[in-house]
Amino acid sequence: MAENPTGIKILSVYNIITGIVGLILYGVMFTKTSLPSELGYYLFYAGDSFTAIAGLTLALLIVGIIMTVFQFFTAYGLLKGFNWAWWLQFAITIFMGVSGLTGSFIQFIIAIVILYYITRPHVKALYGVK
């Protein structure tokens, strides 16, 4: 395999750093909030709107943790030149861009830059994407 472009190396490091930060933040959010105990309480006493909110919050927390773990796999796959890593990066970036629209504008801009880069012909060719 040829030498990875500098952009791929930067993207892989970005995935690793944001993965580490994400795991720390999601871990703190999960352990330092009362969500797990409140969710357990409200699952047995359903009937109010808090149950739906707690369930949605827990679901989003789990999705966030899964997406964060995928970032580590993506970083590895990008560095090794695996085709699936390009597609995983594409999916993560789309998810990041959509969530950036509802949250951080900077996150949205970063997603646009990543999408622009990974869709360049030389990057797509490196991963065998047509």
Please provide a written account of the structure.
This protein is mostly helical. The two termini are 18 Å apart. The longest helix is centred in the middle third of the chain and has 32 residues, at 49-80. It contains six helices and no strands.
Q: End-to-end distance, in Å? A: 18 Å
User: What is the overall silhouette?
Assistant: elongated
Please, how many domains? Answer: 1
Tell me the radius of gyration: 18 Å
Q: Based on DSSP secondary structure assignment, what is the total number of beta strands?
A: 0
Q: Considering DSSP H and I runs of 4 or more, what fraction of the residues is helical?
A: over 70%
Mean pLDDT: 84
What percent of residues are in strands? under 5%
Largest sheet: none
What's the order of the H and E elements?
HHHHHH
Helix count?
Answer: 6
**Classification by helices and strands:** mainly alpha
- Uncertain residue segments: none
